[in-house]
Amino acid sequence: LNATLQAIIYAESSQPMVGGVSYVRVVAQEDLDAAAESLRLEMLDAAKSTLRLAVGGIHTGEVFFDEVLERTSDTKPGDESGVVTVSLKLSVVGVFFQREDLLTIAEGKLYEKMPGGMEVVGVSADSLQFSVVRYDVEQQLANVSVTLVGSTTLSPTSSVLDRDAMLGKSPSEVKANLEA
């Protein structure tokens, strides 16, 4: 109100004035999603710790899967509220293994699948990559897909290096045979 109107329009209170400023904002879907994600990560960390203790021992490899089974909130998008409460029900599965054992099995399979006339000359343990394809909680089993990089060469007994097979061939034929 301007100064002239303030002289004639006013209010009096017979009781002491109380109150103050209350900040209230409109809840957006992003607020609910952010709160749920923050809670999910907190619950996941707690579940990982609990599973590690339950399994016991030292495992050099682990993979966790989580699924939100239920999500509830005391507010919905568009509500005016200063506080948002979100509840989650989370399922967490952990797959634990020894990375060294996985490497040994992968190397064995690499040697086993090597075609005749070839031999493995080096395997890069750092190249070991794995992913859990599926798991069965009841049977406590997991199928793991593994990738391992290794180097191969022709073995000295390879038929490709047989001198008798090279006799009578031109240098270009021998080269083509070696490159195949």
Could you walk me through the main structural features you see in this protein, from its secondary elements to its overall organization?
- The longest helix has 27 residues, at 29-55.
- This protein has 180 residues and is of the alpha+beta class.
- The mean pLDDT is 86.
- The protein has helices at 3-8, 29-55, 99-112, 163-166, 171-179, and strands spanning 25-26, 61-73, 80-81, 86-97, 118-136, 141-154.
- The strands form 3 sheets. A two-stranded antiparallel sheet has the order 1-3. A two-stranded antiparallel ribbon has the order 2-4. It has a two-stranded antiparallel ribbon with strand order 5-6.
- The protein starts with a helix and ends with a helix.
- The chain has 5 helices and 6 strands; from the N terminus they run αβαβββαββαα.
- Helices cover 33% and strands 34% of the residues.
Please render the helix and strand layout as text.
Elements: H1 3-8, E1 25-26, H2 29-55, E2 61-73, E3 80-81, E4 86-97, H3 99-112, E5 118-136, E6 141-154, H4 163-166, H5 171-179
Antiparallel strand pairs: 1-3, 2-4, 5-6
Task: List descriptors.
alpha+beta, two-stranded antiparallel sheet, elongated, two-stranded antiparallel ribbon, 180 residues, 6 strands
Number of helices: 5
- Proportion of residues in β-strands: 25-35%
Radius of gyration (Å): 34 Å
Number of strands: 6
Order of helices and strands: HEHEEEHEEHH
Stretches where pLDDT is under 50 for at least 5 consecutive residues are none
Distance between the termini: 94 Å
Can you give the mean pLDDT? 86
- Overall shape: it is elongated
Helix content: 25-40%
The biggest sheet, with number of strands, parallel, antiparallel or mixed sense and barrel status, is: 2 strands, antiparallel
Strand order of the largest sheet: 1-3
SS-based class? alpha+beta
